[in-house]
Design brief:
Number of strands: 13
Distance between the termini: 40 Å
Shape: extended
Structural class: mainly beta
Largest sheet: 13 strands, antiparallel
Strand order of the largest sheet: 1-2-3-4-5-6-7-8-9-10-11-12-13
């Protein structure tokens, strides 16, 4: 794998190679003026019947940000530049992500994820909804006063699934 970095340390290009040394694929990342990822592309590489190197874009992702720098939309396109699906995100006044909705190419909801936070910005609740707007997963987290997780509870399809308790030697 060969990496090319930009002036602020972000990866601009990742090239992978076949065992014989031929280029196999290229991942490219394009940034905006605020050093945020604006677009990514994945291209496969090969050779034409004449031995010339060929590149075929397999997919590309486009990112949109709000004035606070939060990613509010991500669109996924196939190699033919057709929209496959997208995510739309919303944030609270503290820039905590509160909702992420996944849409298919027909703009129908595939899933929804909701997040809640305490007054310290710790994520206290995560709820996953399916395309029928039914809750399929619900996770809650309690925290110690210092912000370290204390306990996580997980319900799947309304049934208690798992509890995780965290213990710390030093905190």
């Amino acid at each position: 794998i060969k990496y090319t970095f930009n002036s602020f340390g972000g990866i601009e290009k990742e090239e992978t190679f076949k065992p014989n040394g031929d280029l196999y694929s290229i991942n490219q990342t394009f940034y905006n003026d605020h050093e945020q990822v604006e677009e990514t592309t994945f291209s496969s590489c090969g050779k034409s019947k004449y031995g010339l190197r060929t590149y075929q874009v397999q997919n590309r992702n486009i990112f949109t940000y709000d004035s606070s720098g939060n990613a509010i939309k991500e669109e996924f396109y196939d190699g033919g530049d057709n929209l496959v699906h997208s995510y739309v995100c919303t944030y609270d006044s503290e820039n905590n992500q509160t909702l992420m909705i996944s849409y298919n190419k027909e703009d129908s909801v595939l899933s929804k994820q909701a997040f809640r936070y305490d007054n310290k910005g710790n994520k206290t609740e995560f709820i996953y909804y399916d395309s029928k707007n039914e809750i399929t997963s619900h996770e809650t987290t309690e925290y110690h006063e210092n912000g370290l997780p204390k306990e996580e509870k997980l319900l799947k399809n309304g049934i208690f699934y798992e509890i995780r308790r965290f213990r710390y030697e030093y905190y």
